[in-house]
Write a structure and sequence with these properties.
This protein is an alpha/beta fold. The protein contains twelve helices and 13 strands.
Length: about 550
């Protein structure tokens, strides 16, 4: 039996010839040289002999001398073209890169295979299994000899593909990521019956590209453009300030002015009508573009990252699932864990009681702890911190994607009295004066272009100086509560980001801190700040009935 040896390869060992260049230009190809007619001529009884004669010597040589080759020994037969294919997962460019120069026009091995079928004897001869040489096939039938010539084909794919050691688990791979999910290699078949002699195929696993960054998207709810000090507003947000000082700030964000549409567009890269989010999910209709049901033809960002080897998690507000499919009976196709997120901890709808939220962990409803100090903002941060630590402890090289969407500063404005106390008296100057101060700071900072004029105040917002002392006290208190809610939220965001930094991957982490999904909320009215979907039905709208409740705003 002929074997693959260094001598059989010739002195230059795999020098690149014109045949290889031509094949590279013609590609893609699949490797069939060693199995093209050898396998088709051989009968079932001779397959093991064929394998031992031709395939295994080649594979043994390659794996012994070039262990970085990724080989797939599975063969398939194309009956129309009378050709077997044994893929070799290397491009010509990759062969050159790793220094293995293939001499396609030189003899590699000479073999002869006999197949007996009645009086027919097939003699298969070839001189170079790596080039478009002619093969001579002799058939003997009734003492008559015939010869025919047939080109052999080199099968090297010129596309992106797997690279791994034969039978080596956990090998590095370079994958074709243009179609998701990434396709696993074709299942191998074996002629070897003894498991001790069979070689295990490489372990297939989709890993993120080397150096792929962690990604964190933070989305604040119902926050106005002029609220944070980072953008010239009155409320300090240290975490946002720190990110801005070390990164980039933008003053132009495409918003749909509604919660669900902005979130759906952000996480799909599509226009909100394209993903059927013309309104918030609670106001969905049956008309196209407004059904509240993200079509299955849309690939969510989280799903694309997950299928490329990322760990993915969402915490906080979702608000992208139609109201009529948010029960425990589903269907769950458009719940977070079916939209690309491995982990979800938060509320499905548009708002929730921050002291007693209605939460889900994945698809399971959460039973809240009996803790008088419980607050969802702290809870969701704790869950995010734990998840980040667990991910990096178990798979430190696996990048993560965190979508962190607090319920703040959407109503209800629930925050502890300790946080509110920090803001006492900070808004006594009233909204007119504060508005002018914010506008001046934004001009100075360049957040708004020079020459911008302060927009007229809406007619239904009265002049601060014309309010009664009681009204001023009520509205100042509301602003204090709002500022405290944002202050507290920014603090918890900072705690979550510290957990990401603690992984040692801060320099390879992209953080997007979006200051408001749709700008300041217009919910409520001149007489109340209450959330439109809940509190307007129960909270008194008369100013004098609201005043006694001023102290309990929070």
């Amino acid at each position: 039996m002929p074997t693959a040896t260094d001598d059989a390869l010739g002195g230059e060992k795999f020098g690149l010839g014109p045949t290889a260049v031509a094949l590279k230009q013609q590609g893609p190809w699949t490797y069939g040289a060693l199995a093209n007619h050898v396998w088709s001529v051989a009968g079932d009884d001779d397959r093991e002999d064929v394998n031992a004669t031709f395939l295994q010597p080649f594979l043994s040589y390659i794996t012994a001398t070039h262990t970085t080759f990724g080989l797939n020994t599975e063969s398939t037969y194309d009956w129309q073209n009378d050709q077997w294919s044994v893929p070799i997962n290397l491009t010509v460019a990759q062969l050159l890169k790793i220094g293995c120069r293939c001499r396609f026009q030189q003899a590699y091995a000479t073999g002869r295979m006999h197949r007996k079928m009645g009086r027919r004897i097939g003699v298969h001869e070839f001189s170079s299994p790596f080039c478009s040489q002619n093969e001579t096939i002799q058939h003997e039938k009734g003492g008559v000899m015939s010869k025919r010539k047939r080109p052999l084909s080199l099968c090297i794919s010129t596309g992106a593909m797997l690279i791994g050691g034969l039978g080596t688990a956990g090998a590095q791979v370079a994958m074709d990521r243009t179609v998701l999910p990434v396709q696993a290699p074709e299942r191998q078949t074996y002629a070897e019956l003894d498991a001790r002699n069979a070689k295990m195929p490489p372990h297939f696993e989709v890993n993120a590209p080397k150096g792929a960054p962690n990604m964190v998207i933070i989305l604040i709810d119902d926050l106005g453009f002029g609220a944070t000090q980072t953008y010239g507003g009155p409320i300090p947000t240290p975490t946002l300030d720190r990110l801005a000082a070390n990164g980039l700030i933008y003053n132009n964000f495409h918003t749909t002015a509604l919660s669900s549409p902005t979130r759906a567009a952000l996480k799909s890269g599509r226009n909100h009508h394209t993903v059927n989010m013309g309104f918030i999910t609670e106001m969905a209709t049956g008309f196209p573009g407004a059904t509240g049901q993200i079509p299955n033809t849309t690939a969510p960002l989280a799903e694309m990252l997950r299928l490329n080897g990322y760990s993915t998690a969402a915490f906080g507000k979702w608000h992208e699932t139609a109201a009529w499919v948010t029960s425990v009976s589903g269907p769950f196709d458009r719940w977070p864990t079916r939209q690309g997120f491995d982990k979800f901890y938060g509320f499905i709808g548009g708002e929730t009681n921050q002291w007693a939220p209605y939460l889900y962990d994945g698809l399971t409803q959460v039973e809240l702890p009996e803790d008088p100090d419980y607050h969802f903002m702290t809870d969701m941060t704790d869950k995010a911190v734990s998840w980040v630590k667990y991910q990096k402890a178990i798979t430190p090289d696996k990048p993560l994607f965190v979508y962190f969407a607090p319920g703040a500063t959407h109503a209800p404005h629930h925050v502890s009295k300790e946080w509110i106390a920090k803001w006492k008296g900070k808004f006594d100057q009233g909204w007119d004066k504060m508005r002018e101060e914010t506008f001046a700071r934004q001009l100075k900072m360049g957040v708004i272009p020079q020459g911008t004029k302060l927009a007229p105040k809406p007619d239904d917002i009265r002049d601060w100086e014309k309010l009664s002392d009681e009204e001023k006290r009520l509205y100042a208190r509301q602003m204090e509560v709002f500022a405290a809610f944002l202050d507290y939220t920014d603090h918890e965001i900072g705690r979550m980001l510290k957990a990401v930094e603690a992984t040692g991957k801060a320099d390879n982490t992209l953080v997007f801190y979006i200051v408001g999904d749709n700008g300041a909320s217009a919910e409520g009215s001149y007489t109340t700040h209450a959330p439109i979907s809940v509190c307007l039905r129960t909270w008194p709208r008369n100013i004098r009935r609201n005043l006694p409740r001023c102290r309990i705003y929070s």
